[in-house]
């Protein structure tokens, strides 16, 4: 897991953010469960029992001070976040104000639990939709008490995620609802890594799980008699709309100079009413405005997930917003192909294949020309050859409209 505070200068400069060296080696490329309960394997009773992972008073105090310093540095270089952050206007809760439910996601850095119910009345619980709306709490994995380096990285990323989410307002981006009353000081007040927490809307299913469902539907569709093109088009337009919604969210982020850096199916979910939401902003970074949109910046390499990582990020070269375009293109291919990209390869093998041998997923000739061209441009090794996300969004909307018309065909 790499962090979002490593640089705010163009690649022609020579200054790196003080946290660059700390974070660049902590790549976020582990298989974990996601925040909707789509687990990679079962959760044993032993994994649910976090035990007592108390921080020593000295470690807790140092964690608070270091996190405050690093967050202040990142926010100082993030003009949009500074102007639009509403974090301190959101409801705040003590840990004893709610009862935890099941552990629904866990990983090397954070755990996510259902909130069974709140024990206090608040702005959040009094909202009209509160009777049906479900929430989750996200906090650091308490076991990080035994890994101070990851603890520092995770703490800064989680606090910055709160700042980013509070500054964003888009239908397809998860909403931050509340956070811990003590703020960053919660790490020392509680004496635990989970002393700082976020309260978010609960999502029902991730795109990873949805793709699995689509794959099964596609198998069933192929068993139907010929001539059921209407059913085929329905499934395809649903997938295209999903791709459009993701593109809309990323276009919104890029319009605010925010680079997401970890686009993948496990970071895209769906609300109970079916609205797509991208989540997990732990790697997001705001890059400064520059007159030349092709300007690249010195940011941490090896940041994100290998299977979706841009070639320049793998190589630890300077990059810009178009690193997300590369990742999005791989994700779009997966949505259309219903197959994991580079299936069968391990993370380090994917990196080698992509960055050294120029491998990319195979694009069927039966796909629309517009999408085939979009993919090949989007994952081009040359950053300048890639379209921006607005062009990606416009192209997909045209393909979707054409496919949705009576008699319209995708293939």
TrEMBL record:
It holds the Pfam family PK_Tyr_Ser-Thr. Residues 98-403 form the Protein kinase domain. The keyword Transit peptide does not apply. It comes from Nitzschia inconspicua. This is Serine/threonine protein kinase. InterPro entries: Prot_kinase_dom (IPR000719), Ser-Thr/Tyr_kinase_cat_dom (IPR001245), Ser/Thr_Kinases-Pseudokinases (IPR051681). One of its GO terms (molecular function) is ATP binding. Keywords: ATP-binding, Kinase, Nucleotide-binding, Serine/threonine-protein kinase, Transferase.
């Amino acid at each position: 897991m790499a962090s979002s505070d490593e640089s705010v200068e163009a690649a022609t400069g020579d200054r790196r953010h003080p946290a660059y060296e700390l974070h660049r080696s902590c790549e976020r490329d582990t298989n974990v469960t996601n925040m909707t309960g789509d687990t990679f394997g079962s959760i044993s009773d032993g994994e649910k029992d976090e035990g007592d992972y108390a921080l020593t008073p000295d470690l807790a105090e140092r964690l608070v001070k270091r996190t405050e310093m690093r967050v202040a540095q990142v926010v100082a270089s993030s003009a949009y976040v500074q102007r639009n952050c509403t974090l301190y206007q959101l409801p705040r809760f003590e840990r004893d104000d709610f009862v935890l439910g099941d552990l629904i996601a866990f990983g090397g850095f954070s755990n996510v639990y259902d909130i069974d119910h709140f024990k206090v009345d608040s702005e959040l619980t009094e909202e009209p939709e509160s009777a049906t709306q479900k929430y989750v709490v996200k906090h650091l994995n308490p076991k990080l008490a035994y890994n101070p380096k990851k603890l520092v990285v995770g703490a800064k990323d989680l606090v910055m995620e709160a700042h980013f989410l509070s500054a964003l307002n888009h239908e397809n981006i998860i909403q931050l609802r509340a956070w811990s009353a003590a703020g960053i000081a919660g790490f020392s007040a509680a004496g635990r890594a989970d002393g700082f927490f976020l309260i978010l809307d609960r999502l029902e299913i991730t795109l990873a799980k949805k793709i699995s469902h689509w794959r099964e539907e596609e198998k069933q569709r192929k068993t139907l008699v010929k001539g059921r093109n209407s059913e085929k088009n329905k499934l395809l337009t649903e997938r295209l709309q999903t791709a459009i919604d993701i593109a809309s969210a990323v276009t919104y982020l890029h319009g605010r100079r925010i680079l997401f850096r970890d686009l993948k199916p496990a970071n895209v979910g769906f609300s109970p009413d079916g609205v797509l939401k991208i989540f997990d902003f732990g790697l997001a970074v705001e890059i400064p405005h520059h007159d030349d949109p092709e300007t690249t910046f010195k940011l941490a390499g090896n940041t994100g997930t290998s299977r979706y990582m841009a070639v320049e990020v793998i190589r630890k070269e300077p990059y810009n917003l178009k690193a997300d375009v590369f990742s999005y293109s791989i994700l779009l291919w997966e949505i259309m192909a219903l197959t994991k990209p580079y299936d069968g390869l391990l993370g380090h093998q994917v990196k080698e294949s992509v960055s050294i041998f120029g491998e990319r997923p195979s694009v069927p000739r039966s796909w629309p020309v517009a999408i085939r061209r979009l993919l090949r441009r989007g994952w081009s090794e040359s950053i300048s050859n890639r379209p921006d996300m607005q062009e990606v969004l416009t192209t997909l909307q045209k393909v979707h409209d054409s496919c949705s018309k009576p008699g319209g065909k995708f293939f």
